[in-house]
Amino acid sequence: MPKLSFGTDGIRGKVGEFPFTQDVLRLLGQAIASWAVKKYEKQAPRVLLGHDTRVSCKDIKNNLSKGLRTAGLVIKDGGVLPTPAVLQVIKSDKNFDFGIVISASHNPYTDNGVKLFDCKTGKLTLEDEQIIVENFEKNKELLETVGDEVELWAHAQEIYKKNILKNFKPNFLYKKKIVLDCANGATYKVAPEIFRALGAEVMAVSIEPDGKNINEKCGALYPENMKKFISKDSVGFAFDGDGDRVIAVNGSGDVKDGDDLLSILLQHDDFKSEEEVAGTIMTNYGFENFLKKQGKRLARTKVGDKYVAAYLEKKNLILGGETSGHIIVRDYLSTGDGIFVALKSLESMIEKDNWAINTFKKTPQAMLNIPVSKKRDLSESPYADIIDEHKAKLINGRIVVRYSGTENLLRIMVEDQTDESAGRIASSLGHNLEGLL
Q: Could you tell me if 112 and 103 are in contact, meaning their C-beta atoms sit under 8 angstroms apart?
């Protein structure tokens, strides 16, 4: 059996392959249950389960739950829930010890994943992950399931909505025209309800999940889908499959990414005094310049919102995020919440009369994703030599080459003085590396 491992965002893989097979999922549930009993020093820790709209979620949930119930855990099934909703609910309801989300976020429906949240710390620590892996490796015997079958706990989504709404003035979006692209994912029902409850005139698209169309040419990865519905007097927000990312589009059809939204949030009265913001190695250099002009600092972490969250915690900061749209408002939640961030951005846009979502001048940037069969060490020759050769071609910029933490992809990002230079260097570098990888 292959080794179990946690990536940058939980455990992820192809449905029907390790670890997303019936028996392995039961073993994983047992390993999580053993960890939970010890961590929370209880005979029956309480866990909230949530999932997105993938067709595979039901079977994964059932098999994982059988493993969890070998230790007698009390399981509440919240049904379809955005990832941040699970954390928000377990933090607000003291009856819960931890939460599990079944989702592969922005990946296609053929993938799925398991993410865990602690009620106090949010994402698990590296030590917690290691204990679960050790438990999994030690016990490969399927134990007998005890306790009742898991029943749907319908209150979770209502608690999530209520907790978000109490952060905003009633009807503050009155007659504002807003397009929401819900990626046929976990936000397909709850996002339009929340925005309408705050007075918005909502056009909701990609809200007909069929188990296979999650993220399919829609949502945060495909903001051009939303452009078809945008008018001059409206703005749009696109979420990914599990609702922890958000990307915006203004009335002119200009796409505004996570860096843009961070700059909008920094204009908000709640955050304008923040002196340091966390980004990643992929954060646009133009945003760093934007912060410098305001006497603020950008801290760069590795890619992955868990690294951003860890830095915010370490430095006791409030705001951080990724260009991809994972944005953390730490005094609200220690993970990204696309719906909440969209609403806070709208507050700022209304306060500052910035409905056009004007932000900062970006450094020209080109990005490529290259499928790879194996993730080879990029610090070794000949890969490092090729990367260095292309860095020497930059006018005044930088190159970031890294592997995706959730997919078998090599990601290339080139920033330079002109679009033409950035695009040319990225294309050449991608061509050279693709031939080797």
A: yes
* 307 plus 375 within the same structural domain: no
Cα 308–chain centre separation: 12
Q: Are residues 373 and 284 both part of a single domain?
A: no
pLDDT (tens place) for every residue of the chain, 437 residues total: 789 999 888 999 999 999 999 999 999 999 999 999 999 999 899 999 999 999 999 999 999 999 999 999 999 999 999 999 999 999 999 999 999 999 999 999 999 999 999 999 999 999 999 999 999 999 889 999 987 788 899 899 999 999 999 999 999 999 999 999 999 999 999 999 999 999 999 999 999 999 999 999 999 999 999 999 999 999 999 999 999 999 999 999 999 999 999 999 999 999 999 999 999 999 999 999 999 999 999 999 999 999 999 999 999 999 999 999 999 999 999 999 999 999 999 999 999 999 999 999 999 999 999 999 889 999 999 999 999 999 999 999 999 999 988 788 999 999 999 999 999 999 999 999 998 98
The verdict on 153 and 175 lying in the same domain is no
Q: Look at the pTM and tell me if it is higher than 0.85.
A: yes
Same domain, yes or no: 173 and 306:
yes
Q: How many domains does the chain have?
A: 3
Of the residues 34, 56, 105, 206, only one is catalytic, namely 105
Q: At what angle do helices 57-68 and 22-40 cross, to 10 degrees?
A: 50
Q: Which residues contact 101 (CB under 8 A, 6 or more apart)?
A: 10, 49, 50, 51, 81, 83, 86, 114, 115, 116, 117, 242
User: Which residues, in sequence order, are CB contacts of 162 under 8 Å at separation 6+?
Assistant: none
| Whether residue 105 lies in the annotated active site | yes
Amino acid identity for residue 81 in this structure: L
Structure tokens at 401: 């080459």
